[in-house]
Specification:
The protein has 280 residues and is an alpha/beta fold. It has one domain: 3-Layer(aba) Sandwich (Rossmann fold), CATH 3.40.50.970. Helices cover 30% and strands 15% of the residues. It is built from nine helices and eight strands. Strands 2-1-3-4-6-5-8-7 form an eight-stranded mixed beta sheet, with helices on both faces. Helix 1 packs across helix 6 and helix 4 packs across helix 5. The radius of gyration is 20 Å and the shape is globular.
Length: 280
Amino acid sequence: MDVETTQLAPKQYKSGLKPVWCPGCGDFGVLSSITRALSVLGLRREEVAVISGIGCSSRIPAYLDVYGFHAVHGRALPLATGLKIARPDLTVLVAGGDGDGFSIGGNHFMHACRRNTDLTYIVMDNQVYGMTKGQASPTTDPDWEAGKLTPGGTGINPFQPLVIALASGANFIARCSSSDPNGTAQTIVEAIQHPGFSFVQILSPCVTFRPEQRQWKNLVHPAPVEPTDDPARAARRLLTDDAYFTGVLYLGQRAPNEPVPKQSRDGIAALEEEFKVAST
């Protein structure tokens, strides 16, 4: 990858691959927001790495002309954490969906918040497993009838990503809508600039299996309160959340986790010496 010296336009962060998402998918707007944010920040392509897991939203790295890695299901966050620790000079983004991030990846999500490594996690939440034909996901409402698998609804309370992120120690918490690409881009800029683990939930409709989500653009609205650095105040605000407010909720003040990588050993001989068994 050639080193760039001039600021790039948003379209210059896109690869030559055409997205295969369904027409009208909210992820198109998210992709646009990410490229706008990178342009606003003036980042060179070789300074950015995007890691993803499995799912429609996790195709994002293929559509960007930056460093990227398509990880296995639910494991994008530990991989990204390791990358950021090894290469603190990189701007590391993680892209995923509600199934990948909050089901098989739920444990990693909580501990990534707790570790507070300086990376940005962008989750495109459509409350359904879109790539595997419309099953209920962790954030699906309990009464949504998802075909033959859950004809009467799941009957299970949905996962609350913002609540879990706050309780687990995320340093930046926000919600956006894919129908507002400019506002979402600005929030991603703020998330990247804020030190520590930043979590951005983006309401991104699945028009194929949840066509009713087209109405989200009419339901979302700016949060009625300003961001806070007080976790107790943020928690109280979440108690009155109608699931459609957008904007930054929480700006934590914890210092990011920045462990210093150990120096490499001087050759195989030094490594073998550490494991030598003393003779009796």
